[in-house]
Specification:
The protein is α/β, with parallel strands linked by helices. It folds into 2 domains: about 1-100 and about 300-320, NAD(P)-binding Rossmann-like Domain (Rossmann fold); about 100-290, NAD(P)-binding Rossmann-like Domain (Rossmann fold). Helix 1 crosses helix 12. It has helices at about 10-20, 55-65, 85-90, 100-115, 120-125, 155-165, 180, 190-195, 215-220, 240-250, 280-285, 300-320; strands at about 1-5, 25-30, 45-50, 70-75, 90-95, 145-150, 170, 185, 200, 225-230, 250-255, 290. The chain has 12 helices and 12 strands. The strands form 2 sheets. A 7-stranded parallel beta sheet has the order 8-7-6-9-10-11-12, sandwiched between helices. A 5-stranded parallel beta sheet has the order 2-1-3-4-5. About 35% of the residues lie in helices and about 15% in strands. The protein is globular. It starts with a strand and ends in an 11-residue tail after the last helix.
Length: about 325
């Protein structure tokens, strides 16, 4: 099949070419997919996108009218796809549901450790010849209560790691799983998790129903000084409410690998530019905030799995085979 691959970087080409081995005709495009760039996908039977490519209704219509029959995503989430438009135009939507839960889970715990032990500040001090310990006081993870919102594949691995630290783990998920129960994870109501957790980490997909689930109301229920981690989707958090909670001290530590307006910032070198997003810039001023640029997924194993599943999705679709990675509702 002829495939237009949007939002490509050098590492995308490397891993996709290796997985493809000449099976499909992959055309790599650097721009993100949007209404303005959709015409670049004209004439391609399949379009491959990433987390910040926008498959909105007008984009799907443009692609479908020019011959696109398949949207294949190089990610697990699909909140950036208008599924109703895809159904209307008979465009199949496939994804990569389980590329490496370990990659994201390990990065999540890495953010927890770095924030708690103030590793970025400690690193910079030592580089400057400052070996003072004032201001670097942390706490033992052992015995702390961690709230895990979403215990799918990633959330379950997070629970496994935190159980190894000796944490008490509370969880919220409409579909509790036996692996977490075996780890002594206690499923509770959301209010109880928010009120009792020393640390809270988000591992659920973004849906219209849970957008801004961490808002001012949820924040008021949390313990003073709580650690909040988000490596899932940026819009799960109401960023303005979080900024207010940082200013008041309600949030003591904030770790983000995602941001609700990230598509205008992440995945590009902007070191020589002024970032025009005032809210994001405000977050960067807090010493107890650690932000990474949507890199939690970024391991060799994950990229190998993403590429292999993406190519396999295209091959199965072309061959009319069963599609077990089809997005729900398609």
């Amino acid at each position: 099949m002829r495939v237009a691959v949007f939002s490509t970087k050098s590492y995308d080409r490397e891993f996709l070419d290796r997985a493809n081995s000449g099976r499909h005709e992959l055309h790599y495009l650097e721009p993100r997919l949007s209404a303005e760039t959709a015409p670049l996908g004209a004439g391609f039977e399949a379009v491959c996108g990433f987390v910040n490519d926008r498959f909105e209704a007008d984009v799907v219509e443009t692609l479908a009218k020019s011959g696109t029959r398949l949207i294949t995503l190089r990610c697990a989430g699909y909140n950036n796809v208008d599924l109703a438009a895809a159904r209307k135009h008979a465009v199949t939507v496939l994804r990569v549901p389980g590329y490496s839960p370990h990659a994201v889970a390990e990065h999540t715990v890495g953010l927890m450790l770095a924030l708690n032990r103030k590793l970025p500040r400690a690193y910079n001090r030592v580089r400057d010849g400052n070996f003072a310990l004032d201001g670097l006081l942390g706490f033992d993870l052992h015995g702390k209560t961690v709230g895990v919102i979403g215990t799918g594949k990633i959330g379950t691995v997070v629970c496994k790691i935190l159980a190894g630290f000796g944490c008490e783990i509370l969880a919220v998920d409409p579909f509790p799983n036996e692996t977490c129960r075996f780890l002594a994870v206690r499923y509770v109501k959301a209010d109880e998790l928010l009120a009792q957790s020393d640390m809270i980490t988000l591992h659920c997909p973004l849906t219209p129903e849970n957008k801004h689930m961490i808002d001012s109301t949820a924040l008021r229920q949390m313990r003073a000084g709580v650690m909040l981690i988000n490596t899932s989707r940026g819009a799960l958090i109401d960023t303005l409410a979080v900024v207010d909670a940082l200013r008041s001290g309600k949030i003591g530590y904030l770790g983000l690998d995602v941001y609700e307006e990230e598509e205008q910032i992440f995945f590009e070198d902007r070191s020589g530019l002024i970032i025009s997003d005032d809210v994001f810039s405000r977050l960067l001023t807090f010493p107890n905030v650690l932000i990474t640029g949507h890199q939690a997924f970024f391991t060799r194993e994950a990229l190998e799995n993403i590429a292999a599943t993406t190519v396999d999705n295209i091959t199965k679709f072309e061959g009319g085979l069963a599609l077990d990675t089809r997005v729900a509702g398609q």
